[in-house]
Amino acid sequence: MNQNQMGNQPILVLPEGTFRAMGKxxxxxxxxxxxxxxxxxxTTLGPKGMDKMLVDSMGDIVITNDGVTILEEMQIEHPAAxxxxxxxxxxxxxxxxxxTTAAILAGELLTKAVGLLDQNIHPTxxxxxxxxxxxxxxxxxxxxxxxxxxxxxxxxxxxAITAMTGKSSEKAAIYLAKISVDAINTIAETVNDKTxxxxxxxxxxxxxxxSIEDTELIRGIIIxxxxxxxxxxxxxxxxxxxxxxxxxxxxxxxTDTQIQITSPEQLQNFLNxxxxxxxxxxxxxxKTGCNVLFSQKGIDDMAQHYLFKKGITTAxxxxxxxxxxxxRATGGKVLMNIEDLSSDDLGFAGLVEEKKIxxxxxxxxxxxxxxxxxxxxxxxGTEHVIEEVERAVTDSVKGIASALEVxxxxxxxxxxxxxxxxxxxxxxxxxxxxxxxxxxxxAEAMEIIPRTLAENAGLDPIDILxxxxxxxxxxxxxxxxxxxxxxxxxxxxxxxxxxxxxxTQAIKSAAEAAEMILRIDDIISAGxxxxxxxxxxxxxxxxxx
Length: 545
Prior knowledge:
Helix content: 40-55%
Oligomer: single chain
Number of domains: 2
């Protein structure tokens, strides 16, 4: 065989069935996939955004306009598209709100990059320009932001209402916002002049029944358990609460043990001894002066009887996380040994009561003096309503927490994105190479937010963009889109406020994801594994091996 013939032979490096795309084909395929994901959530942005109905393979329905919920439920398989889901997840974990914004920005940065790629600008030049633009964008946002503290309740209320705007629970936004702000202010702590908010100390419980307005903040904790003995009091005022991680039961021996009993008297003495041990345990609890007991472990029936006789209302097998929250709410200590329990270890609550909510008994620990853990009980007509209210409350709580963590806020309505866009256009003049084109592309991509707000409200996006650009050129950095009137107005005066961290995290995540996708020029996707047929029951037939 001569050299020419050998040169014509195909060289198989990858297994059969493997898909491969290279160069611009790979880049365009990745960008197209990411754009599809961004477009899927675009219509949900803003006060006039629409909802999505998602039905999984089991027939379960989710109705929401929460970006991360939509993207998680969509079961996306394309690797580049999955990166946009990761952007939304990161935004949700770090801030809790702005997931749709982050996904849309990432998609638009990639869309603008297509034009640059078609002009034969190298992807590394584009990513370099995007990096410069990202750093400048964060700087611009910091300059236009305003400082706040947990004392600025009016601004915090506006933050919470803005976070809920556009969700199905919007009609109760003012009421739910007040609950969110009160919850955050209750658990917030100041350490070295910095506000620390651990939202893990806000417990959210949901029960169907009633309306959204029946949602309430409990200055304490809700325990999804019931009182162990029917005779125990179901409502205790001025509760003195003991918290134990200890079993009020006779421990079973770990190894096989035999006890030889030769007479009825010995058996009776043995049973009496068990009763004495349980009675002594209860007496130690009684000496502390407590009238309510929560145990993380089990409580023997006889111990329950003794506790009832002593007037101590009891719940058992309480979750560890709930025990920790109870300690923070009541000021008590969770002890692992009854011997160490004293009156100094007790927690206090104005009221402990058992109530039946939606057919389930729950214990409410209310009116704690200075609780550092609280509960929000969400009510609503249907399961879908409750789930959407929960998402709205979670967004507002996380939004307030992130605003206090950084201590800065910006106006909403697309105004910060337009301020960044305007600032980047001026910044791009400092560069004269191809990076300038990438910085301008980044600036144009930022305008996708005011543009989308206008489109979702049925307004003309061109007119809106012209008007908002004109306002920002005059230095009106807080002017954005009023989707109800179609005017460009001062969003700060309108009360549309967002945490600075929402915007900075969205830009960071979107830019980094876009940079990563743009640097990919080769996709090698393995084919599906060819699964061999199942062996028939009883093994392979004779003569076939």
